[in-house]
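Let's sit down with a protein and look at its sequence and fold side by side. Please make up or recall a protein chain and show it to me in full. Label the sequence line and the structure token line clearly, so we can match residues to local backbone shapes. Go ahead whenever you are ready, and we will take it from there.
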Amino acid sequence: MLRQCYGGRQQRTGGLVSRRVYGEQRGVCRRPRPHHYLLCNAANPVVSTLPAITDADHVSVGADHACYITTAGGVACWGSDAFGKASVPAGVNAASTVWWLAAGANVTCAISSTDAANMAPPGRLECWGGVTSSGRSAYEVACTTWGCIVSEASGGGAAKASFVALSLADVPATRYYNLSTYAGTPTVSGLVNGIGKSAKFNTPADMVLHDGCLVVADMVSNALRRVNLTNAAVTTIAGSGSSGRADNANPLYATFDYPMGLDYDAAGNLYVGEYRNNQIRRISASGVVTTVAGKYGYSTPAVDGAGTNVVVGLINCMRYDATSGIMYFTDYENRAVRALYPNMTVGTIATYSSGVMSLIVDPSLPTIIVGTQYGIFKMTRSGSSYVLFCGHTSTSGLTDGTATVARFSQVNSLQRDAAGYLYVADSGNARVRKVSNRRRHHDTWRRDGSVRGWRRHQLTHGEPGRPVCGAKRQRALHGRLHLPRDSPR
């Protein structure tokens, strides 16, 4: 059985393996055998003033404090006592034998039992520190082949009612990701091709994967860029860099004005929605740039039809449906999901009560997922009906919770992973947030969109592997592209 607690370093206790805990890990400590002296790297600047310790059995190191299990089965800590994370509750040492310990950034957790001979699930979980003062929760997780049992600490060694999770991914704990700049020069914008950080962007918006490359709408540069994901080489595939609306058989001579939404169709044609021109442009597989819809300079009211008779507003996101050949796109100013049909006519699929910003069109789903200023909706492909999946229809905010409780402020980008979880670029709150397709309800699960938050700037613009929608007025990617690196740590 796998046990996991969210707050410290990997430990082994008998035949059980306690996997990594989500928190900042800095210390370099180990227990030598057969003696019980604790050794730490003297050059480690984080946990300082090492006391004389001669009775250590296991140790866990947090961001700026550390704790150890004594040979008598108690717990002792040293280092920073911010949030009370190094102040061991009296009950931990007085009432039980501790057999598992985890120290995190601002919290410490221990699992204990009545005596050393009973070090087996279930244990007594107690957490102290930030778990009682920061609004965060700590969890004890025991997993086997059919799923996990999750216990949430409520203080004083007590736990709230346990619940079932299908996997560790369903445990509502904060994950930490590393970010690395893959392409673009940090803090410097421009239209410069190159390898990796030698290249420059200016407010990259929508992105789409095509033929092993990431194609980017470089909005303020008025260009379409290609990033080779093998060697990080950045090239310009369309746009001269000047603003305009000139079509051309040579894509580098064509001009754009704030390209934002984009996607490819099945034939390899790239469609681009322009913010300032209020037009949809097509770049053929051979590179010819043409205007297929949109009346220049007009954004409202929405007008369906063909060619330059069509009126479209700000197109933040475009997504192609390979099953129907329809290119769906968002029309923020007209609060609508609209469609460019294979015959190049434009129709309105559905209108909403607030600006529409993002889409997911997945062949495996019977519905289209729509992100607006305040919420996430599920819509039939015909647009004949839609329902609020998560968030609100008219109220913004930053609240995690179940579907009726959660609040967003500009669902600027949406992504869905293979397990069905949604990742949301909540641009008004400067957060990337995760939406579960399941909710804890006693021992059953319902598909109603419970939400949990992710720390600011943990992720920027989703994750590589599938298209993500662009960042209108979002400066987190100003001049560069960030890609998440590694798994949760």
Notes: Confidence is low (pLDDT under 50) at residues 1-46, 439-450, 452-478, 483-489. The CA atoms of residues 81 and 221 lie 49 Å apart. The first strand starts at residue 2 and ends at 5.
